Amino acid sequence: MAHPAGDSPARTLASEIVSCLRGRGHVAYFAGGCVRDELLGLPPSDYDVATDATPDRVRGLFPRSSEVGKCFGVVIVQGRGEVVEVATFRSDGTYTDSRRPDSVTFSTPQEDARRRDFTVNALFLDPFGDVASNPGDLPRRPLSGCVIDLVGGVADLRAGVLRAVGDAAQRLAEDHLRALRAVRLASKLGFQIEAQTALAISRDAAALRGVSRERIGEEVHRMMTHPSRAACAKSLAALGLLAPVLGLDQRAAVSWDHLASLPGEAPYPATLAAWGLDLGLPDGEAEWPGAWRRSLCLSNHDRDGLGAVLKGAGTIRGAWPGLSVAGRKRLAAGPWFEWARLLIGVRTPELSAGVANDRDRLAATPSGLAPVPLLGGDDLVAAGWQPGPRFKDVLDRVYDAQLEEKIRTRAEALELAAGLGVKG
């Protein structure tokens, strides 16, 4: 079948999968977030297909496929350099562990829609359906096809409301991570969380029972690396989720100015630092990053980056005027300095601007901010020096002299090291 010129490779592959399944007598639709995003005029990050074909049947029709959850009816189909998740319509049993259903039953589109988390994620799209049959209140027409709405998701899309499917308390109790997903999705889309859904989050899902720290950390990472991060933080606080997420006592934010000041592409450690500062936590040699590492399962890189931003902010706020030229250059050349300076500028813009001017003047010196060291350990060894515990200290002092323009050649560097008494 022909496809609209605007189709992406992923959409084209998903359409071909639907067409193949239909040609073999099956029901098949686009499902979930890709439908929601098309109706909002957003580019879907991926395309999912829902069908009445069993996983074995899907595997038989698409040789380039693999099962990622046979008991849940999920098969990954590859093609055109893309992957599409194909899931069999199902209904879920009880959720004993508050994470995944104890059992699933392959079922119908109606039951499949009713077991999903939020109404705007429970829409189907027939990519080959009659466009004229679309509901009249669609926020935006899909690229092609007919929308199938079994749970009132179209009305919620148009109203900008995030609503749990069916009984909100039951949906949230099935998987408490849905509380964090609700915050992230509503903030990303600029939606309001519907009152009963918000109440269910505050009353029960705030416990995050059955949710691992790894899954919590993954959701927070997705929140804090998206431009809607400030809205996410505000919503987490309003819904009583700060304590279970961060391991902190519930507290009121001083403001959300630090998070709001960051550009969209800000790295994760800088956003975490901004979040902590908005919550009134200390900068400098703060201890709370260690607690956040455990709560959010931070990598060593993210933990160290968070600590470096906070230490840099504390140094700029307090010790910067008294630092030597070498000390200022070392700090300004660090990978997290600019993020620390940006965050300092939220409350003390004059200080931040002054530090930026200092940095620019230092960068304009002959050696710049971070010149290649004139001397290294191998140079000293080659010159007949004995390695020892003072090696690092001497090399640091020689490099400081280089940064301060006191020495400019390798010979001068060796002469200075000799005067520091390292040679054996």
Describe, in plain words, how this protein is organized in 3D.
There is one protein chain. This protein is of the alpha+beta class and 424 residues long. The protein has 3 domains: 9-152, Beta Polymerase, domain 2 (2-Layer Sandwich), CATH 3.30.460; 242-370, no CATH class; 377-419, no CATH class. The protein has 21 helices and 11 strands. It has helices at 9-23, 33-40, 55-61, 109-114, 153-159, 168-174, 177-189, 195-203, 213-224, 229-238, 242-246, 257-261, 268-278, 288-296, 300-318, 325-332, 337-347, 349-363, 377-382, 391-403, 410-419; strands at residues 28-31, 48-51, 65-69, 74-79, 82-88, 90-92, 104-106, 124-126, 146-148, 161-162, 192-193. Strand 3 (65-69) and strand 4 form a beta hairpin. Helix 7 (177-189) runs parallel beside helix 9, helix 7 crosses helix 10 (229-238) and helix 13 crosses helix 15 (300-318). The longest helix is centred in the last third of the chain and has 19 residues, at 300-318. The model is unreliable at 1-5 (pLDDT under 50).
Structure summarized in a few sentences:
The chain has 424 residues and is an alpha+beta fold.
The name of the CATH architecture of the largest domain is: 2-Layer Sandwich
Distance between the termini: 82 Å
The chain-level structural class is alpha+beta
Here the CATH topology of the largest domain equals Beta Polymerase, domain 2
Number of helices: 21
From the spread of the alpha carbons, the general shape counts as: elongated
CATH superfamily of the largest domain: Beta Polymerase, domain 2
